[in-house]
Amino acid sequence: MAEPDKDLPRLSKRMSELGLCSRREADQWIEKGWVKVDSIIVNTLGVRVSREARIEVVREATAQQSELVTILLHKPVGYVSGQAEDGYEPAVVLVRPENRWADDPSPLKFQPRHLRGLAPAGRLDIDSTGLLVLTQDGRIAKQLIGQGSGVEKEYLVRVKGRLAGGGLQRLRHGLTLDGVQLKPAKVTWQNEDQLRFILREGRKRQIRRMCELVGLVVTGLKRVRSGNVPLGHLPAGQWRYLRSDESF
């Protein structure tokens, strides 16, 4: 390969850009000698490569990747999405065999290794419910929460208060949080006290803060869809595997 050039991407970053794996996975595969660049095995971290370079991964890497699981959990109120905080448990503690949805169509048998490295791909506030995606697969995490992700998330939001004049249009586009203008959103009334939000971003407590800016208080929030995957009939506190024929 050509001499390193600081303007060229590191191999792990380029693999992530190409959607081959996450950067963490790429580093692991490189160290194991599972990555080829222009037919030559590269097992040194930090190597930079041309964007035209042909990158391949060996069979062991793809086999390992095929064993990664993604879990769909209906998070109840009272659990945090990520690390435990303020005495509240993380939602991942609900991923136990006894909490698996009886109607899960996946043929996968639960294995303790399915919990290894399982992390939330997005947040859901402690006082919110609905679909929380937990995955071992860095590609899915990047798709859902990576920079530039445009995957839609849909929410049903119960509110009280009086909507300020022009408030619905402002919810759709025109609000600013933390000094940043929000992306356009789809917001419609479901009934007299419930709104439906469809967002393509996920700032901290975004919907609650948006509603406060137009005179509304959120009394209940439920995520019902992430991309092409709906919450469906999955009961609160239960989980199922993402099927092989599903994608976000």
Structure description:
The chain is an alpha+beta fold. It has three domains: 11-65, RNA-binding S4 domain (Structural Genomics Hypothetical 15.5 Kd Protein In mrcA-pckA Intergenic Region, Chain A, Roll), CATH 3.10.290; 68-148 and 231-241, Alpha-Beta Plaits; 153-226, Alpha-Beta Plaits (2-Layer Sandwich). Helix content is 19%, strand content 26%. The chain is built from six helices and 14 strands. The strands form three sheets. Strands 4, 5, 6, 7, 10, 11, 12, 13 and 14 form a nine-stranded mixed sheet that branches. β1 (35-37) and β2 (40-41) form a beta hairpin. α1 crosses α2. The longest helix is centred in the N-terminal third of the chain and has 9 residues, at 23-31. It is globular, with a radius of gyration of 21 Å.
